[in-house]
Amino acid sequence: MTNQSTRREMLKGGLALAGLSVFGVPEWALPALAQSETLVPFTDLPENMNLTPSADRRILDIRKIDGPFTPKDQFFTTQHYGHPEVDLATFRLKVSGLVERPKSLSLEELRKMGRAELVAGFECSGNRRPLQGLSGNGRWTGVPLKTVLDSAGVKASAREFVFFGADHGEEEIEWRTQKFKLEQQFGRSLPREKAMSSEPFLAYALNSEPLTRHQGSPLRLIVPGWYGVANVKWLSQIHVQEDQYLGKFQARWYRTLKGEMIDGEMKWKETAVTHMQLKSFIARVTREGDRHKVLGVVLNDGTPLKSVEVRVDDGPWQTATMDPSTSGKYSWKLFTYVWNGATSGEHTLVSRVTDVNGKVQPTAEDLENKKSFLEDNSQQPRKVMIS
Ligand SMILES: Nc1nc2c(c(=O)[nH]1)N[C@H]1C(S)=C(S)[C@@H](COP(=O)(O)O)O[C@H]1N2
Ligand SMILES: [Mo]
Q1: Where does the pLDDT of residue 30 fall: very low under 50, low under 70, confident under 90, or very high at 90 and above?
Q2: Ligand 1 pocket check: which of 56, 57, 79 to mutate, most ligand atoms within 8 Å of Cβ?
């Protein structure tokens, strides 16, 4: 369903009534700033925050979110070896290893294999305060990974699926007391069960346009509900093997070190960065006359949500309104909250999301025993000055 038809359906169903805001229009229909709205600055953002993109880094200015999908020229970009240039004419996706029919597929051949759509948002596992700008939401077009794997015929002994990008660099690999300097490609892997499921997706377009170089042109993997690192850009090879892949970005860099009390004893656990942890954050506060509106974002692994709430200072948690145009399972979810009666002076606003299993977004205190900074999904209090 397109965005337009979603909105029409909602209107038909009368559900829009529930979302009618004090502005006299459905509040969810207007993620973009209305003409009469002005941005209320966050006073907790560092003044010298640099949002200027460089050749291969860009962060989303979340205060400017203007619709369910992040435009290609605003979508964040980050990676380890810069942006490789892949020639579309000679590009081939290789499928090698434990398959009956090894493949070398051109973009044209991949396009002929399928044209599916997937709405999926994601954040980098390092996304965190103050800005939370390593996040975005896209409508991806491509082929389910399973279609490609089935055409190659995965052997019964296959256990591990390694995805290599065209980007590479020299890495110092430590083994006991030895160090080796070796050139290697960016690589990530998925276990058989995940790789052969219906969800991982090979995308060649974002928001109906061919992928840009920033977004991994011509082809990238999208693992819906997982942190960004799983979404291998400039995908050039899928190698199927039996052994676990323990490359740097699989086994060492994307780890979370966290203490957990088990039977009264602290256990230090190192876990792989996989599915996204339940998170919400406030993206902006706007003012129209003497009324204020809060817009925020939820990201998680696709588990349905129970509620999103906003709290002002020490007040009660208040239910926010979800934007139905972002209701897809793996879409990021936008929410709004109308803040009535804001008094002048500084205020603290915070949001929290709860999923249907009763899991509540943790506070920073709850994550005290997480030593590494990845997977920081803590509630983020924001400060605004009301004049
Ligand atoms: N080939 C390749 N793919 C990659 C990376 C990389 O370094 N090389 N970085 C990953 C990380 S850490 C993130 S967060 C996402 C960022 O995707 P984006 O640039 O489309 O936002 O790409 C992932 N895919
Ligand atoms: Mo990342």
Answers
A1: low
A2: 79
Distance 229 CA to ligand 2 centre (A): 5
Percent of the chain with pLDDT over 70: 92
Question: Which of 202, 222, 229, when mutated, tests ligand 1's pocket best, judged by the most ligand atoms within 8 Å of its CB?
Answer: 229
What distance in angstroms lies between residue 287's CA and the mean position of ligand 1's atoms? 36
Beta-bridge partner residues of 206: 140, 209
Structural domains present in the chain: 7-66+276-386 (2.60.40.650), 72-257 (3.90.420.10)
Which ligand 1 atom minimizes the distance to the CA of 164?
1
Place of tokens 């020490």: 314
Atom of ligand 1 nearest to the CA of 166: 1
Contacts of 365 (CB under 8 A, 6+ apart): none
Ligand 1 pocket, 188 CB below 6 A?
Answer: no
- For 157, residues 6+ apart whose C-beta sits below 8 A from its C-beta are 98, 242
- How far from 359 is each of 98, 294, 303, 362, CA to CA, in Å? 39, 23, 10, 9
CB of residue 77 inside a 6 A radius of ligand 1: yes
Q: How far is it, in rounded angstroms, from Cα 145 to Cα 196?
A: 8
One-letter amino acid identity for 281? F
The rounded mean pLDDT for the chain is 92
| Residue minimizing CA distance to atom 4 of ligand 1 | 232
For the full predicted model, state whether its pTM sits above 0.85: yes
Does ligand 1 lie within 6 Å of residue 167's CB atom? Answer: yes
Question: What angle is formed at CA 244 by the lines to CA 201 and CA 167, rounded to 5 degrees?
Answer: 55
pLDDT band of residue 158 (cuts 50, 70, 90) is very high
**Cα angle value 206/281/304 (rounded, 5°):** 70
Per-residue confidence (pLDDT) for residue 160, from 0 to 100: 98
